[in-house]
Amino acid sequence: MSDLIFYTNPMSRGQIARWMLEEVGAPYEQRLLGYGTTMKGDEYVAINPMGKVPAIVHKGEVVTEAAAICLYLADAFPEAGLKPKAEGLASYYRWTFFCAGPVEAVFSNKAAGLEPPADKQATLGYGNYDLTIDTLEKAVAGKTYVAGDSFSAADVYVGSMIDFMLNFNMLEPRPAFLAYVEPLRERAAYKRAKEIDNALIAEAQAATADA
């Protein structure tokens, strides 16, 4: 058994963790799970009681949540150089968790057609969609990397969120977003990760069509 096991479904936020794993470059064992079946089975629920992916098990330790997986892997494999030095560390944590918190919440609500009334916005962590997206734009505007002067795990997570929302027309293609994410899409690890997941999606679709 591998020291690093990756639980995923190609049509999930597992794509974020896949990209990070490819950036790290360490060998990992892939375990594919199905929605409503193995993802909710006893074996996997013992790993992640939420019954959702992604998750990793590294040397017997479980890590769930895509943002946590990204930052954990940067720490676990320092030779990959995916954690910034001191001058970029504050932004590294700030913008990763901003995307894991307000951005994740606001786009999930938007996808579900939920818009908080004005008198309730002050009680929410993100306030409203426009405020959150404007703040996200400020985080990446004029920057090659979101934290410091080199690529880091924060770029995997922040970049994945922006990439996803742009691809599904949930984010206005503002120049700042495009200028930030387009070079990330050219990274070899990003391309490898997409090739793997796209091939798995195509296999699953073909199997469904033949059934």
Would you kindly provide a written description of the structure presented here, covering whatever features stand out?
The protein has 211 residues and is α+β, with helices and mostly antiparallel strands. It contains eight helices and four strands; from the N terminus they run E-H-E-H-E-E-H-H-H-H-H-H. A four-stranded mixed beta sheet has the order 2-1-3-4, covered by helices on one side. The longest helix has 26 residues. It is globular, with a radius of gyration of 18 Å.
Please provide a brief summary of the model:
The protein has 211 residues and is of the alpha+beta class. The protein is 53% helix and 8% strand.
- Terminal residue distance: 32 Å
Architecture of the largest domain, according to CATH? Up-down Bundle
Strand content: 5-15%
**Low-pLDDT residue spans:** none
Q: Write the element-wise H/E pattern from the N-terminal end onward.
A: EHEHEEHHHHHH
Mean pLDDT: 94
* CATH C-level category of the largest domain: Mainly Alpha
CATH fold name of the largest domain, please? Glutathione S-transferase Yfyf (Class Pi), Chain A, domain 2
Which structural category do the helix and sheet elements fall into? alpha+beta
Overall structural domain count = 2
Query: How many distinct helices?
Result: 8
Q: What is the rounded Rg?
A: 18 Å
Task: State the shape.
Answer: globular
Largest sheet: 4 strands, mixed
Percentage of residues in helical conformation = 40-55%
Please list the strands of the largest sheet in the order they lie side by side: 2-1-3-4
- For the secondary structure, the number of strands is 4
